[in-house]
C-alpha cells in the first residue's frame, strides 16, 4: 500500500473577492451559458448563487482539528474500535464544481482518548464543504483524526456517486466510487483493516 504524503488540511485562502465581484462573476457565467443575466427571471440569481456558495463551501472557514480538541479520557476501559458508519456526505468535485454524494464510514482505535460521536460527523461535513476529490477527502478525514486524537489508528471509507459522471459522454450516473484511507494499526495490521471492512459491510438492522 503506497503511503501518500499528508494531505493539506487547511488550504491557504487566496484574497477573498467582494460580494459584488462574486455576483458579477455569476452574471458573466450566465452570459457565457447563452442567457441574458438582466432578464427578470435571472435578476436575483447571482445573489442566490453567491449565498449558496457561502453555504456549500463553509468548510473553508472551519478548523477541523479544533472540532476534536475536546476529548474524553474516562471510557471505563473501553479499548475496541469505535465506528461511525453511514454518515451522509454532500460535497463538490474540484474539477467540475459538480456535486457528489454518498456515505462516509469513520473509525478509530482509541489510545485512551475518545471524542464525541457528533464531532466525527462534523469533521466529515467540514471537509465535504470544500472543493474536493474523493481521494483527498477520505485521506483528510483519517489524517485529521490521527493527528488530533492520536489514536492507535484511523480508518475511513467513502462511497459516493459523482454527478460529473453523467456529463459528456461518460453517462454513468449510477457508478459508485469507493475510497479508503488507513492510518496506524489499520494500515499495518490486516486484522484491524478486516474488522473495519467487515463492520461497514455488515447490514445495519436497528
Ligand atoms: Zn468532477
TrEMBL record:
Name the pathway it acts in.
Cofactor biosynthesis; 7,8-dihydroneopterin triphosphate biosynthesis; 7,8-dihydroneopterin triphosphate from GTP: step 1/1
Keywords of the record, alphabetical order, are: GTP-binding, Hydrolase, Metal-binding, Nucleotide-binding, One-carbon metabolism, Zinc
- Domain GTP cyclohydrolase I per the UniProt entry, residue ranges: 23-200
Query: Which Pfam family, any one of them, does this sequence belong to?
Result: GTP_cyclohydroI
- Which Gene Ontology terms of cellular component type are present? cytoplasm
Stated EC number for the protein is: 3.5.4.16
Its protein name is GTP cyclohydrolase 1
Please tell me the species this chain comes from. Answer: Hyphomicrobium sulfonivorans
Q: Which gene encodes it?
A: folE
